[in-house]
Specification:
Thrombin, subunit H; 24% helix; 7-stranded antiparallel β-sheet
């Protein structure tokens, strides 16, 4: 069905391109019926004019940026793969999912999204030169939406794509996405970094922090493909798009899992097949003026805890969430929750600060010290982090 759809579009495009040419040819060959003079051979002046017109349509020279993109594509595209996963039931193929991925090392390890290969019975990887190989799943982590596949060997012209540095990523810089939108292999799109530090949902009920937002067109099939800087380094893994709910196509807002999470999770997936994320066991948001007024707080920034997970590390340490709901200036607001102002001595100004610190600097079993504001007084609470659970229960 996909090939039929593609062929239809190619035919339509060819037909659309031929129509202006036909119309132009007709206007040049149909003689006028009103007092036209006999046809004569072109003069030397006419020939000279025609030659000069031909010279005017010489393509402009390629700009430095265009040449950079051309070379980047030539270097990187061989290491970007199309991933097709098949699901079987009662010995019959029930359907398949297409996504993208990229070669991580010379051992045949390939990075993609966990949601691309989730529940797959068979995985096939297609390289830019047309080579199709079966792949095995080395490991997956639904919390970061990352997975690592392995093929026995790589085509001779394939080299791994280097990973970049998230600290060097800046809003406004040019980025490139390479992948297989709608199954169209080896598609390059260009855009900018629209924002950094976004929090996006994972496949589970947890969130992925520090995501990169881009306006480089990303569509279904791009999942798992690399987001690259102009040095050809991976700065993120394309994973999600924001839509209006009416369509699943790009609306100019896409998200990539940041490279520093890849650097933290992927080696563990290769070595052990899984990654253990630390868990604090809280739910909340940024402190806002309404909460500040309702609770008569002496601060304006912090991480406000709304709910505490039953049986979680924070509950065991005595942390508390919202205790009651009051009305302030016509707005209902929950009050009584702890406000985190620091973690291990580092200032906290938002809830994301807590998420990022726990995710990127700690491990299950590690103690962290939370400085909180409760009932107008500061106190330190030591919490022993645990491994993220498979299900959650709120207080």
């Amino acid at each position: 069905m996909l090939n039929q759809f593609r062929n239809k579009n190619i035919k339509l495009l060819a037909l659309a391109l031929s129509l202006p040419i036909v119309a132009l040819a007709c206007s040049m060959t149909i003689p006028s019926s009103r007092g036209s003079s006999p046809t004569s051979e072109p003069t030397a002046v006419q020939e000279s004019a025609e030659q000069s017109q031909v010279q005017l349509v010489i393509p402009p020279s390629i700009s430095d940026e265009e040449n950079l993109l051309i070379q980047l594509y030539k270097n990187i595209n061989p290491a970007v793969v199309n991933i097709a996963t098949y699901i079987e039931q009662d010995g019959q193929e029930m359907g398949y999912v297409q996504g993208s991925g990229f070669v991580y090392d010379l051992l045949g390890d390939i990075i993609t999204n966990a949601h691309v290969i989730q529940d797959a019975d068979t995985i096939e990887v297609t390289f830019a030169d047309g080579t199709i190989l079966s792949a095995d799943l080395l490991g997956e982590d639904l919390h970061s939406d990352l997975a690592v596949l392995k093929v026995e060997s790589l085509p001779s012209d394939v080299t791994p794509i280097p990973l970049g540095n998230l600290d060097e990523v800046a809003v406004g810089q040019t980025v490139v996405a390479i992948g297989n939108p709608f199954g169209l292999e080896g598609t390059l799109t260009r855009g900018i970094v629209s924002a950094i530090g976004r929090t996006i949902p994972a496949v589970t009920f947890f969130s992925i922090p520090m995501a990169i937002q881009t306006d480089a067109p990303i569509n279904p099939g791009n999942s798992g493909g690399p987001l690259l800087n102009l040095k050809g380094e991976v700065i993120g893994l394309n994973a999600q798009i924001e839509t209006d709910g009416q369509t699943n196509t790009n609306s100019g807002v896409g998200f990539a899992i940041p490279v520093n999470i890849l650097q933290r999770v992927v080696p563990e997936l290769i070595q052990s097949g899984h990654y253990d994320w630390p868990w604090l066991g809280v739910q909340g948001g940024d402190l806002n003026p309404t909460v500040v007024e309702a609770m008569n707080l002496p601060i304006e920034k912090g991480a406000y805890l709304s709910k505490i997970m039953t049986g979680g590390p924070a509950e065991k340490a005595g942390m508390q969430g919202i205790e009651e709901v009051v009305t302030v200036n016509g707005r209902r607001v929950g009050v009584g929750g702890d406000v985190i102002t620091a973690i291990d001595g580092l200032p906290v100004s938002s809830f994301d600060d807590v998420l990022i610190y726990v995710a990127m600097n700690t491990s299950p079993g590690q103690d962290v010290t939370l400085t909180i504001l409760r009932d107008g007084k500061y106190q330190d609470v030591v919490v022993t982090l645990e491994q993220r659970p498979d299900s959650l229960e709120l207080q």
